[in-house]
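User: I'm designing a mutation panel for Peptidase and want to avoid disrupting the core. Could you give me a predicted structure to guide residue selection? Please restate the sequence first so the numbering is unambiguous.

Assistant: Good idea. Sequence first, for numbering, then the predicted structure tokens:
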Amino acid sequence: MFDDMVASQLRRLHVAWPQLVQPVQFAVEDVPPSDPAPWQADPDLCSQCFPAGRGTPARIVLYRMPIQMHARTRMDLQFAIRDELVSRLAELYGRRPEEIDPDWGLD
């Protein structure tokens, strides 16, 4: 179910912003790494983004278990997935999340 929700949000975002979504690789992992990189003073436990570099595309990784722990209902989970994807896309491209999705942060 989680992966289907992620795919649904990615399709929706791709329709609105194909130039932002298409070059990015997306992944879902169960939990974040237990040993954050030295430059991650306060790592986000729900998702991470990695900028493109040296032949590797930009990547966004969502962490299933932390996101699911915060969601009480299926709708909460859909909103949480949407917000994580939108905030990470905004971070990658130096935009405000509201520019990518005006409903970002609204439940």
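For picking mutation sites, this is relevant: The mean pLDDT is 91. The beta strands are 25-29, 47-50, 59-63.
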